[in-house]
Amino acid sequence: MVTKTEETQLNELENQVENGGGGVWEYLCLVRKLKVRRSEIVLKHGLSILNDPGKRSALGPDEWTLYEQVAIAAMDCQSLAVAQNCIKVLQKKFPESKRVGKQEALLLEAKGMWEEAEKAYTSLLEDNPLDQVIHKRKVAMAKSQGKPSLAIEHLNKYLEVFMADHDAWRELAEIYVSLQMYKQAAFCYEELILTQPTLPLYHLAYADVLYTIGGLENLVAARKYYAATIDLTGGKSTRALLGICLCGSAIAQLSKGRNKEDKDMAAPELQSLAATALEKEYKQKAPAKLNLLTSALRSLKIS
Amino acid sequence: MAEDLVLDTAIRDWVLIPLSVVMVLIGILRYFVSKLMRSSPTPDAKMVKEGQVIIRARSLKFGANFIPPRSFRTRRSYFSNEENGLLHVPKGEGSNPQAQMFSDPNMAMDMMKKNLSMIIPQTLTFAFVNFFFSGFVAAKIPFPLTQRFRSMLQNGIDLSTVDVSYVSSRSWYFLNLFGLRGLFSLILGDENAIDDTQRMMQMGGFGFDASKSLSAEKDGLDILQHEWALPRFEQRAESVLRKLVK
């Protein structure tokens, strides 16, 4: 994850580069280090360096890394000819290289030639069965071909070996949610919460999934996780505030016939406080919609 | 006895500096040779998986209080189940790292290469120092030492009355041996700054003994009591909101 200082640094450099100042090479290095996706800018400025033989030779051995970076950026912007040229140059310099092989397979993928790309990746995997990037590319291919079940299968196999890769867990969770397999998605989000318990994003997503699954126990748990998100974000997460109100009303509905003492009322005022906080926020940020909000909240409380 | 011996500056020019230069050059040479000779380690799939399992089990231990009790119990049994739990190492199989070391020819070769690349230059340099630079006082250590160090530091000097602070060139060799790490980090780039002491420590630690860490993690998980932290969060959220709303 990119930290705040790195983000500001990146934005500064980006402004500088876009407005004609120098510092293109530092910008490109930073983008590469942080693995952010700024393909248009990288393509434009990277190409300007590569096409200028003076600047290119000034880079020395980093020239090839730049070719690789520009090739990927070109594929992202669908300038396949540019990508092809860069890869040709790399191939001439490093024949038989696995890294260049990956780039070629990526180009096949970008062109939409799925079977060839699949074959290329499989052969690369034979040489190096523990290459994480190739596994992830296969998953991405399955996803972009619109075969989420195949993607899930690949991801599960990947995670059997590399079970500490939390990006992979996140991807799996999102695919499950898109397929409405909420129980599995909940499992994935639990894994994510385990690895990074202070990140409110995962608590929020987990709470959403729990709320969607439904059932009294899950609703109570969802409420707790919304509360955790509020705590971790200092009350600024509108979604969590709304989540608490919705949970509260859903729980009230479900437990109408039951004993009031069964309910876990550790924080009885939470719902009303959340409603007040919501109203305050809407007053500040979207006063036009305040009426909608108050009427919605009123209907929730009534039911 | 605090007589002050006056040491010839020629000693500094022809002993101390050349010796340091030679050791630095040998270090650099060793670095390049090891880079050439190093076979790219093909990580075993099983070892990678074990490493990742350990990481996951560890994060389970740390984050256990953030997930509902049922999920925690499911995960814990997944890990420490007697038959097919991930962390469970059956008694017989608890791999003897030594045996594995010698049965796996690749690893044995690697180990030998590493050892050789360290022992040979050390032996050679030591013999070199002894041959060329023995029999005279090389330097004076600025702080006083006890008599016990005499045998180590004053090897070629056969006078027992000389102050222990005056040392022979063998001690300069040892000093360089332990101290050139900073110089190597400047010359070779920060990651390659291992000098001989660290390499000696690396010699001792044989391969990654996964089975012990696995059983350690399993024990850690077994004794863990799950205390769901989320109810506390509800109250904290309440207070946060109360402050916000005021």
Automatic annotation (TrEMBL), chain A:
Please, which domain of life does this record's source organism belong to?
A: Eukaryota
SUPFAM superfamilies in the record: TPR-like
Instruction: Keywords in alphabetical order, please.
Output: Endoplasmic reticulum, Membrane, Repeat, TPR repeat
Keyword Membrane on entry: yes
What's one Pfam family the UniProt record gives for this protein? Answer: TPR_EMC2
- Which InterPro entries does its entry note? EMC2-like, TPR-like_helical_dom_sf, TPR_EMC2
Q: Which residues form the EMC2 TPR-like domain?
A: 100-209
What is the membrane topology here?
Answer: Peripheral membrane protein
**Localisation per UniProt entry:** Endoplasmic reticulum membrane
Record GO cellular component, one term:
EMC complex
Q: What protein family is recorded?
A: Belongs to the EMC2 family.
Purpose of the protein: Part of the endoplasmic reticulum membrane protein complex (EMC) that enables the energy-independent insertion into endoplasmic reticulum membranes of newly synthesized membrane proteins.
Please give the subunit comment from the record. Answer: Component of the ER membrane protein complex (EMC).
Q: What is this protein called?
A: ER membrane protein complex subunit 2
TrEMBL record, chain B:
What's the main place this protein lives? membrane
Domain of life of the native organism: Eukaryota
Compartments annotated for it: namely:
Membrane
| Annotated Gene Ontology cellular component terms | membrane
Membrane topology per the record? Multi-pass membrane protein
**Statement: the UniProt record of this protein carries the keyword Transmembrane helix:** yes
Keywords linked to the UniProt accession: Membrane, Transmembrane, Transmembrane helix
One of the Pfam families matching this protein, by short name: EMC3_TMCO1
TM helices/strands, residue ranges:
14-33, 119-143
In the record, the note on similarity to other proteins reads: Belongs to the EMC3 family.
Name the record gives this protein: ER membrane protein complex subunit 3
Naturally occurring in which organism (per UniProt): Cardamine amara subsp. amara
Taxonomic classification, please?
Eukaryota, Viridiplantae, Streptophyta, Embryophyta, Tracheophyta
